Amino acid sequence: MRSCSPPSSRSVTAVWRGFAATPVLVSLTAMSLAAQQEVPLTNLPVAAPGVGLPDDWTLRQTRAAPAPLFAVTAEHALRVEARASAGFALFELAHRLPEAPGVLRWRWRTSTPIPAADLRRQPADDSPARAVVAFADRRTLFYSWGNRDTIGTAFPSWTGRSRIVIVLREATEADGAWRLECRDPFGDYRRAFTREPPPIVAVGMSADTEQLGAATWAEIADLSWWPAPSDRDSADQDRPPLCSQ
By C-alpha distance, which of 184, 212, 21 is closest to 127? Predict the structure, then answer.
């Protein structure tokens, strides 16, 4: 699995070029948050396995397509199955998450890539899985499983410039194995929209295959916020590694 590494020291000369590095870790400085450990952002860790979304999740259909099917697995992952369908499930945070040093971390997997997908073109803009991060100003980041798109590529969705697609995986990695991701969503927001990020208000998952009619499945789990450790905590050998396996 790919590790989360610090951003390149090279200057960024264009807004989208700033995403081209591998997933970004924010600087490990002292912070005001008291808890220096994983903060689950959804209720998936305690959700009962079964068909359908767990309580407090909202299903949103897109582009007038049929909604994909969601379920909670025995591993407490959220599974989505799409067949010429599109939609996303959102979990509204109990408390808004303001910008702070740390990383958004999750794991996801799929074994059903979409060989003809092209996330830049409306007629082929399909993905088996996207991790969704929604901000208080209604702007949204879609961390997407792409096809042949360059990892780290970011661009506005054709559905609106308030939605940014950020490609994290390609079709060759869709082998059914769990992939770990770590992102600084506030830094991604700042690079995408060239303004200060408001708090995060919701996270979730989507899948869309209505353009090309593919049948796909994907799972996402452990959507959580990891505050950056303080100087004292960074020396704690018992603290688990954040973004490498």
Answer: 212
